[in-house]
Amino acid sequence: MGQVLDKFHGREWRKAQIRKISDKVFERVKNQSGRRNLTFEDLYIAVLLVYNDINKRLPGPHFDPPSKDQIRSIMKECDLNLDGEIDHDEFVKFIQKLTADTFVVVSKGLLVTLVAAPTIAMATKRATDGVPGVGRVMQKVPNSVYASLVTLAVVWIQTSCKEIE
């Protein structure tokens, strides 16, 4: 439960995660290419690596990377010095612009999991009060334990469904 709650830190946490991923990927691609800045081909590889890291690290659905045409148009917007290459600062802005929508989806998924699941858990626990045999057992289980178990079950179901897709 603690690990799930750690993912729900807000906008600053998400920006820090994107910055960490961006810095790591930029350095990796820059070192492999041997250039100080990224060309379009390098940038496309970097975008694929960023989306791979986002899909690994952040909870929620997996995101498909944008097309080459989308990357080319955003590159033109972010290439401030118009040299046809992206430096580190331009790359960070590029990735922030590219990934802005991904965090809205992630946040909505987390809200459903972290707010709806415990609420449903408490409602189902109260509904079992009148059921013979089950009601007494359910009353002995602390609310916090029951809500945590149901929330973990919801997270497990969500991740299982993603693996099937």
UniProtKB/TrEMBL annotation:
UniProt xrefs under PROSITE patterns: EF_HAND_2 (PS50222)
Cited Gene3D superfamilies: EF-hand
Pfam families for the chain: DUF7874
SUPFAM superfamilies membership: EF-hand
SMART domains noted in UniProt: EFh (SM00054)
Ranges for domain EF-hand: 66-101
Entry protein name: EF-hand domain-containing protein
